[in-house]
């Protein structure tokens, strides 16, 4: 298992291009050439403040290579029902999965949400539910986004 550390994007802005690359690999239909998303623009707003949302967390392996990321935002599928902080964009490089990086990113997001003054953190996902359940999040709802059914989870203080 490789050693890794988690930092905020605004402390390592030079990693933004690599994080953008992870987004493109994970969500090509959104961030690809034909998609409506702009990963660099989404990340640029995370560089503006260390004291407010959005905030992007970056997992770096020992050499400084970006191996995962997750963001805290106010909007995500389900946020219209449950306002507050949302964990979004959780992705780990395929070569580094099953090493605890996803769980560590979730733990760091929980701590960051508390630091920013939020009593609860939400997430909507079709794939990361097992990590959230292991970290004692509660499944509270389901929503549909772009034709995909997503489970909505909450972790309260």
What can you tell me about this protein's structure?
It is a single chain. By secondary structure, the chain is of the alpha+beta class. It has a single domain (4-156), classed as 3-Layer(aba) Sandwich (Aminopeptidase). The chain has five helices and seven strands. It has helices spanning 16-26, 28-31, 39-44, 101-115, 129-134; strands at residues 4-8, 55-61, 66-73, 85-92, 120-125, 138-145, 148-156. Strands 1-2-3-4-5-7-6 form a seven-stranded mixed β-sheet. The longest helix has 15 residues, at 101-115. The protein is globular. The mean pLDDT is 94.
Helix and strand content put the structural class at alpha+beta
* Estimated share of beta-strand residues: 25-35%
Low-confidence region ranges: none
Q: What gyration radius follows from the Cα positions, in whole Å? A: 15 Å
Q: Oligomer, anyone?
A: single chain
**In the CATH hierarchy, what is the architecture at level 2?**
3-Layer(aba) Sandwich
Q: Mind describing the biggest β-sheet?
A: 7 strands, mixed
What's the CATH first level?
Alpha Beta
| General form | globular
Count of DSSP H/I helices: 5
Question: How many strands in all?
Answer: 7
- N-to-C order of helices and strands: EHHHEEEHEHEE
- N- to C-terminal distance: 30 Å
Strand order of the largest sheet: 1-2-3-4-5-7-6
**What do the pLDDT scores average to?**
94
CATH superfamily: Gcn5-related N-acetyltransferase (GNAT)
| Helix proportion | 25-40%
Number of self-contained structural domains: 1
The name of the CATH topology is: Aminopeptidase
């Amino acid at each position: 298992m490789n050693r890794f550390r988690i930092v905020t994007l605004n402390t390592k802005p030079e990693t933004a291009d690599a994080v953008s690359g992870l987004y493109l690999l994970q969500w090509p239909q959104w961030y690809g050439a034909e998609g409506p998303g702009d990963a660099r623009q989404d990340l640029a707003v995370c560089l503006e403040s260390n004291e407010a949302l959005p905030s992007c967390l970056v997992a770096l392996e020992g050499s400084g290579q970006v191996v995962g990321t997750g963001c805290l935002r106010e909007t995500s599928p389900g946020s219209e029902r449950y306002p507050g902080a949302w964990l979004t964009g959780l992705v780990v490089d395929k070569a580094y999965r099953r090493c605890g990086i996803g769980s560590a990113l979730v733990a760091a997001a929980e701590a960051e949400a508390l630091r920013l003054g939020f009593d609860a953190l939400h997430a909507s996902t079709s794939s990361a539910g097992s990590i959230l359940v292991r970290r004692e999040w509660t499944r509270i709802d389901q929503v549909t986004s772009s034709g995909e059914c997503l489970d909505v989870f909450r972790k309260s203080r």
